[in-house]
Specification:
It comes from Ruminococcus albus. Keywords: Metal-binding, Zinc, Zinc-finger. GO terms for molecular function: zinc ion binding. The structure is a single chain. By secondary structure, the protein is an alpha+beta fold. It folds into five domains: 94 residues, no CATH class; 102 residues; 95 residues; 123 residues, OB fold (Dihydrolipoamide Acetyltransferase, E2P) (Beta Barrel); 101 residues, no CATH class. It contains 17 helices and 19 strands. The strands form four sheets. A seven-stranded mixed beta sheet has the order 13-14-18-19-17-16-15. A five-stranded antiparallel beta sheet has the order 8-7-6-9-12, with no helix packed on it. A four-stranded antiparallel beta sheet has the order 1-2-3-4, covered by helices on one side. Strand 2 and strand 3 form a beta hairpin. Helix 6 runs antiparallel to helix 9. It is globular, with a radius of gyration of 30 Å. The protein starts with a helix and ends in a 10-residue tail after the last helix. The C terminus is likely disordered.
Length: 605
């Protein structure tokens, strides 16, 4: 037995419950103790470590104990490491523990009264200045693994762009999935997540699902390449790789929740339900919070997906769906952004019948569409930042768009502003669309019929659009809010024409990039010169240069055998970033203009 192994055995024998908890946390320790019951203690002592199998993983115990490693994806001290230590404590005799250090006796105080007085008069030492934690970079070996994985993934993305979706091999989704698994093996969590998303969206295309959106796929593929390129170029830390699991923080005090809606989701890699709650007192700092009951289906056949029980959150004995008619008061609630944890450590302190006819709901209802457009100007990227209660006064028309596979309803507010409600037709939205259609017919036949919507708002091509989650016919009418448009938007109408012109240009450039991805770099781009001239005529020289570089790169690739699809992706990403910045500045101006009737300005005078 080497001295290093003796030291490890001594550390294990000396480790008490507090020591093991400090390596991870109380929950991990309890889980590890449960897993360790009856676990075999077959271990091997090497020169500087002890190796054993635990929970299907191989654990290597080292000195100090927090340097121990495990073959699972976790980069921190996991339950396998803690469980292995618990098992080893049952094997190593307690007498191998380090002997406690003897306390040093302090000499009796012989200070005189004068010395004591002098000591008490000493100036206290300055408090130490807190220092920032040192940045820990990945080792050269780990960095090389991550970069090799990133290069593989970028190569697949470049192949998709070069060949085009129309010529993409049938096994490409499987190859993307294999690359995502490799990302997992090198602990690149963010890369794994977005590669799985690309694979899921690509499967939607190859299987001709209505859920496939070419423009969204183009955007996400460029985002994926951007993330992977950063992994290749940056000096990497663990934070750059992302987290496999969300980090939740505990809220102080009680959290009062009012259930307001739910929707079924099927986003390729995950299926299930998302439940929406109103944070009555804004304890979380947000109006809305969500609980997701989703499960992965990466490796399941779509026609033979297994049924799994619904989540029973917060130590409840029933699924969440069963309590969606009750207001809840939670204690020790944990959140991450707008996501609520379903941890059993959170307790339900009170349940009562819910009523959406309450001041908390009334305060959030928007009856003026301009208020929604202005709020979106300040909203973040999280979905719940863009959720609103909306009360239209009339339904003007409704139709089904067979080309885009969506139901469209045009609605009007108290000031005559008009916008569209859109609901994408999918298997999980069929019944909701049928309900929406019935309500639209009632509003068309009876002008006094009113409803309230819970919807996600967004601005598409310069138009405000609502994507509904729930619709209510029982929320009683209320007085109009009397909303006044903020001063900064008062002169927006003068720029609306120019804003719409630029947004139209941006839209055509996005369509061009989507067409390139759809047909491949070896296909010809139509009207390529017109888009560059269009940008120059609008005074957008920088945009014209970026668009020209994309067009020239595609043309060069088409007429040569040595083209670099990765360089083309980089050019497209730069053009997309420029367009996104421009859209953020112009969308609200255009939306306010396009929704308003000609005489709307009289309302603000």
């Amino acid at each position: 037995m080497t001295d290093a192994v003796k030291e490890i055995r001594k550390l294990i024998a000396s480790a008490d419950e507090d020591t093991l908890v400090s390596l991870a946390n109380k929950g991990t320790y309890k889980r590890a103790c449960k897993d360790a019951e009856g676990a075999p203690a077959d271990f091997t002592e090497n020169d500087d470590s002890i190796v054993l199998d635990f929970g299907g993983e191989t654990v290597t115990i080292k000195s100090p104990l927090d340097k121990s490693t495990c073959t699972c994806p976790s980069r921190a001290v996991c339950r396998h490491i803690v469980g292995a230590l618990v098992v080893m404590k049952g094997v190593i005799p307690a007498d191998e523990a380090a002997a406690p250090e003897p306390e040093q006796e302090t000499p009796a105080a012989e200070n005189t009264a004068e010395e004591i007085s002098a000591e008490s008069a000493e100036v206290p030492a300055d408090e130490p200045v807190p220092t920032e934690p040192e940045t820990v970079y990945l080792s050269e070996k780990d960095t090389a693994k991550v970069r090799a994985c990133s290069e593989l993934c970028r190569g697949l993305l470049a192949d998709i762009l070069a060949d085009g979706l129309v010529r993409t091999p049938a096994d490409m989704p499987a190859r993307i999935e294999a690359a995502a698994v490799r990302c997992h093996s090198v602990k690149a969590a963010a890369a794994e997540k977005i590669m799985r998303e690309i694979g899921g969206r690509l499967s939607d295309y190859t299987e001709r699902r209505a859920a496939f959106d070419l423009s969204k796929f183009t955007e996400r593929l460029m985002k994926c390449d951007e993330l992977l390129r950063e992994l290749e170029e940056k000096k990497l830390t663990e934070d750059d790789l992302g987290e496999f699991k969300r980090k939740y923080s505990t809220l102080d005090g009680e959290l009062s929740l009012m259930p307001v809606g739910a929707r079924d989701v099927d986003i390729g890699d995950y299926v299930g339900e998302i439940y929406y709650f109103l944070d009555v007192n804004k304890t979380s700092g947000r109006n809305f919070l969500t609980v997701s009951d989703l499960r992965p289906v990466f490796y399941e056949n779509e026609k033979k997906r297994r049924r799994t029980p619904s989540v029973c959150p917060w130590d409840l004995a029933v699924p969440l769906k069963s309590v969606m008619k009750n207001s809840l008061v939670l204690y020790n609630a944990k959140i991450s952004d707008d996501k609520l944890s379903t941890s059993a450590e959170t307790k339900v302190m009170n349940k009562s019948k819910v009523s959406l006819n309450s001041p908390e709901v009334y305060d959030l209802i928007k009856d003026d569409f301009r208020e929604i457009a202005a709020a979106l100007d300040e909203a973040g990227d999280i979905e719940t930042d863009r959720i609103f209660f909306v009360r239209p006064t009339a339904c003007l028309s409704q139709r089904y768009d067979k080309y885009d596979q969506q139901f469209i309803m045009e609605i009007e507010d108290v000031n005559g502003c008009r916008i569209n409600i859109k609901a994408k037709f999918r298997a999980e939205t069929k019944s909701f669309i049928e309900t929406l259609e019935k309500i639209g017919k009632r509003m068309l036949s009876d002008k006094d019929t009113c409803f309230t919507l819970l919807a996600v708002a967004g601005i598409e091509d310069g138009e405000l659009t609502l994507f509904p989650i729930e619709i209510y016919d029982f929320i009683v009418p209320f007085e109009c809010s009397g909303y006044t448009l903020p001063e900064k938007y008062e002169g927006a109408a003068a720029y609306a024409g120019y804003a719409e012109t630029l947004l139209n240009l941006f839209s055509k450039l996005r369509e061009m990039m989507s067409a390139i991805l759809h047909c491949g770099l070896r296909s010809e781009i139509r009207d390529e010169d017109k888009l560059v001239k269009y940008a120059n005529n609008c005074g957008m020289k920088g945009l014209a240069e970026l668009a020209g570089k994309v067009i020239e790169g595609a043309s060069a690739f088409r007429h040569s055998t040595g083209g670099d699809a990765r360089e083309m992706l980089l050019s497209m990403e730069k053009l997309s970033a420029y367009i996104k910045t421009g859209e953020q500045r112009l969308q609200t101006i255009s939306a306010l203009s396009r929704m308003q009737p000609d005489d709307i300005r009289e309302l603000d005078q």
